[in-house]
Amino acid sequence: MRKSGLSDRSFDTINVLLLIVISLICILPFLQIVAGSFATQQELMEKKFVLIPEVYSLDAYRFIFSDITIPKSMMISVFITVCGTIINLVFTSITAFALARRGLRGRRFIMFLIVFTLLFDGGMIPAYLVVKELGLINTYWAVMIPNAISAFNLILMRNFFMSLPEELFESAKIDGCNDLKTFIQIVIPLSMASMATFMLFYAVNHWNNFMMPFLYLNTPDMWPVQIWLRQIIIMATADFGDFGASIEIPSQSLRMATIVVATLPILLVYPFIQKHFVKGVMIGSVKG
């Protein structure tokens, strides 16, 4: 084994230091937001940047969870995220598998249309008109169906399916499997790492999706947590009504607490699929 020289050690040291600096740049703002959500309004106004609060306060979280609105909206967000992600995975995987089969007629033309959507987007108004004409306004379908397939994820998943050996499909066909049975019993079990990665991508997108519920859901009882957190931030700079008479609302920490509440659930999911994520994120990215 070749011994590492001075230049190799220097290169590794610089890489480690650079990665530490980049990690701190990424982590520090989030730590500041978490710490600020527990700080008092006076401390935030005086210091501007707080990593360890002198006095811990839960007033912002008490305000957010003062009634059932936020827990209910969080359950709606969970519902949209779970159902939307399932729809995404089903539609994306089936379409990618079909496009990965070399015997599919018009495959190149269909792929051209899919790639075309990556470069040119119809825009918000045409999308709204289509959803309206389909009668999906003020239904959860309007949030989940229009983005059922991500063109970028579809291409990656198609490339992964194309990397599977053709002999595998020929053997399955000899054993009497049709395309659907081959897809369910052979392709899906071999694609769990890829599926876990795309599940995370889609789930994060649904959880953070603000614009589509804002456009398509008109009834406040149907709003997910992102819409209600926006309402809370607006309220924090205006009138607090009866609640404001009983407690002083720290508007600065309230903004940070809303970010923590909106981010924490999706962060809790990540450790459970992290082992698949590192492997799956590279799948399908090599073969064009």
Layout: helices, strands, pairs:
Layout: H1 6-38, H2 41-47, H3 59-64, H4 69-100, H5 107-119, H6 124-133, H7 141-144, H8 151-163, H9 166-174, H10 179-190, H11 192-208, H12 211-216, H13 225-236, H14 241-246, H15 251-280
Helix pairs in contact: 1-15, 4-8, 4-11, 4-13, 11-15, 13-15
Provide a concise account of the structure shown.
The protein has 288 residues and is mostly helical. The protein is built from 15 helices and no strands. Residues 240-246 have low confidence and may be disordered.
Task: Explain the overall architecture.
This protein is an all-alpha fold. The chain is built from 15 helices and no strands. The chain has helices at residues 6-38, 41-47, 59-64, 69-100, 107-119, 124-133, 141-144, 151-163, 166-174, 179-190, 192-208, 211-216, 225-236, 241-246, 251-280. The longest helix has 33 residues, at 6-38. The two termini are 36 Å apart.
Q: Beta-strand percentage?
A: under 5%
Number of helices: 15
Structural class estimated from helices and strands: mainly alpha
N- to C-terminal distance = 36 Å
* SSE string: HHHHHHHHHHHHHHH
Unreliable residue stretches: 240-246
The level of helicity is over 70%
Number of strands: 0
Major sheet size, sense and barrel closure: none
Overall mean pLDDT: 82
Radius of gyration: 24 Å
Give the overall silhouette: globular
